[in-house]
Write a structure and sequence with these properties.
mainly beta, Immunoglobulin-like, six-stranded mixed β-sheet, 6 helices, 33 strands, copper, hydroquinone:oxygen oxidoreductase activity, copper ion binding
Length: 557
């Protein structure tokens, strides 16, 4: 592995490839007028009160949620992070491609060692060929429960949106609030082998709203609008574990962008957004005499888990200027009609509406041929009960839950993978033998196999530069079928196909959309189903491929 050249995705490319990437970057129009924008992140503890619980939480610059970063396509961002809390920390710029800047991607022990207490680190990267809504968050343990914020990428000056210009743009971060310390929650789960305790509330820009006990009107996010005006809502699902339905009572939303990629606009009254995903939607206020001056904005969970989950509804309020919604009125606002928590059909129908803009200015460069095919079976397995708490483990049949792909559960290295490559020290750190398909095929969405134990390793997939890749992600029912949000660092990909049941290459490939599939960086594998994605491996570096989220409270990659 150390002697190979031109390797990529989870291996650094050769110098020739890096020079080629540099030449392409320098040839891109508009970069000569780009700016360098500098931010300082002072990570410190701050006192926050929600649901009558006052506690000290990690924040950036004392803000919860954290500060909004605003750049233009082609700009360079320089963020100096100073860590003044007791925990180690890193930051990930979720969705940024990190062309030639893998050191800045942020996942701990993959592209960097964590920033220790009292230490600092400078992230420097250029925003190349991207515009729209992304976000940033801590990428160490569960610190992103409070360490997160929006990253807004505006088009270059003089370049208009491919949709009507909004009157105002509003970032709307959907999060979770834990009365307990999230670090204690995940620590306990790792000790017991069971699922983590669920959150106590969902939040809009850090505020839970009036549906929870001991939550006042001051804890409610209010979006004030003027009649007839159009607003761009930059939605970000910053929740740790939950896919969320979203809606605004008596208002239709127009979806125009997903994961910072333009889509063919389509109307919807209820949206679903997975952890890590972003979505830009247009909301037009009623021009004359709306039936009310205040309307509920609501989020509620979508899940098929067999375990516990936060089955609550959080509410914000849309207020027409001149309205003053009392605390009592807030609690009695009619809610938007959202699907049931387990309505997989509604999720599938909404997801099927996404199509890339695929215009001359914003083409869909979908790979038509594929060099490397991968089939990843994802889901939950088990580990034997070791170091039990009170004599038992809390997974099924006295085991420990373990997430896996192709029955391999990731082992966090002690050395950053990018550092190991830079120093050419691979032994004892990683192995380049991640399986391209399950070693033993089985009925993935049917009766589970008798042996549910997983294997462990830090195993990677090396790819040659410019390889065209197809990955089929197959949900499994080993310990219960459920949807799984996954994020690909350093890339966007095209979602060329999806379906329920077991993937069948002989029949399903013919149904692929290779004309205008949606372009994303985060996707949910459907419950008891599959999704196929394609991308070109043209971004050299060690980046986590298909990073499985800490989803549904029990997947600990």
């Amino acid at each position: 592995m150390g002697s190979s050249t031109g390797r990529h995705l989870l291996c650094l490319a050769s110098p020739a490839c890096l020079l080629f990437a540099a030449a392409v970057l320098l040839a891109m129009p508009g970069l000569t007028a780009a700016r360098t924008r500098r931010y300082s992140f002072n990570v410190t503890m701050a006192t926050v009160t929600r649901l009558c619980v006052t506690k000290s939480v990690p924040t950036v610059n004392g803000q919860f949620p954290g500060p909004k970063l605003v750049v233009r396509e082609g700009d360079t961002l320089v963020i100096r992070v100073t860590n003044n809390i007791n925990n180690n920390v890193t930051f990930h710029w979720h969705g940024i491609r990190q062309v030639r800047s893998g050191w800045a991607d942020g996942p701990a022990y993959i592209t960097q060692c964590p920033i220790r207490s009292g230490g600092s680190y400078v992230y420097r990267f250029t925003v190349t060929g991207q515009r729209g809504t992304l976000w940033w968050h801590a990428h160490f343990s569960w610190l992103r429960a409070t360490l997160y914020g929006p990253l807004v990428i505006l088009p270059p000056r003089g370049v208009a949106y491919p949709f009507p210009k909004p009157h105002r743009e509003v970032p709307l971060l959907l999060g979770e609030w834990f009365n307990a310390d999230p670090e204690a929650v995940i620590k306990q789960a790792l000790q017991t082998g069971g699922g983590p305790n669920v959150s106590d509330a969902y939040t809009f820009n850090g505020l839970p709203g009036p549906t929870y006990n001991c939550s006042s009107s001051n804890d409610t996010f209010k979006l004030r609008v003027r009649p007839g005006k159009t607003y761009l809502l930059r939605l970000i699902n910053a929740a740790l574990n939950d896919e969320l339905f979203f809606g605004v009572a008596n208002h239709t939303l127009m979806v125009v962008q997903a994961d910072a990629s333009y889509v063919k606009p389509f109307a919807a009254t209820a949206l679903v957004i997975s952890p890590g995903q972003t979505m830009d939607v247009l909301l037009t206020a009623a021009a004359n005499n709306p039936p009310s001056r205040s309307f509920a904005i609501a989020v509620a969970p979508y899940t098929n888990t067999v375990g516990t989950f936060d089955n609550t509804t959080a509410v914000a309020v849309l207020e027409y200027y001149g309205a003053a919604t009392s605390a009592a009125a807030l609690r009695s606002l009619p809610l938007p009609s959202l699907p049931a928590y387990n309505d997989t059909g509604a999720v599938a129908n909404f997801s099927a509406s996404f199509r890339s803009l695929a215009s001359a200015q914003y083409p869909a460069r979908v790979p038509r041929t594929v060099d490397r095919h991968f089939f990843f079976a994802v889901g939950l397995g088990a580990d034997p009960c070791q170091s039990p708490v009170n004599g038992t483990c809390q997974g099924p049949n006295n085991t420990r839950f373990a997430a896996s792909m192709n029955n391999v559960s990731f082992v966090m290295p002690r050395t950053s993978l990018l550092q190991a490559h830079y120093q050419r020290r691979y032994n004892g750190v990683l192995a380049a033998n991640f399986p391209a398909a399950p070693r033993t095929p089985f009925n993935y969405t049917g009766t589970p196999p008798n042996n549910t134990f997983v294997t462990h390793g830090t195993r990677v997939v090396p790819l040659s530069f410019n390889t065209t890749v197809e990955v089929v992600l197959q949900d499994t029912s080993i310990l219960g079928a459920e949807s799984h949000p996954l994020h690909l660092h350093g890339y966007d990909f095209y979602v060329v196909g999806t379906g329920f049941g077991n993937y069948d290459a002989s029949n399903d490939t013919a149904k692929y959309n290779l004309v205008d599939p949606v372009q994303r960086n985060t996707i949910s594998v459907p419950t008891a189903g599959w999704v196929a994605i394609r991308f070109v491996a043209d971004n050299p570096g060690w980046l986590p491929a298909l990073y499985l989220y800490l989803h549904l409270k029990r997947e600990f990659l």
